[in-house]
Amino acid sequence: DVKVTQSSRYLVKRTGEKVFLECVQDMDHENMFWYRQDPGLGLRLIYFSYDVKMKEKGDIPEGYSVSREKKERFSLILESASTNQTSMYLCAAAGRENSGTDTQYFGPGTRLTVL
Amino acid sequence: GENVEQHPSTLSVQEGDSAVIKCTYSDSASNYFPWYKQELGKRPQLIIDIRSNVGEKKDQRIAVTLNKTAKHFSLHITETQPEDSAVYFCAASWNTGFQKLVFGTGTRLLVSP
Question: If you measure CA to CA, which chain A residue comes closest to B40?
Answer without folding.
Answer: A108
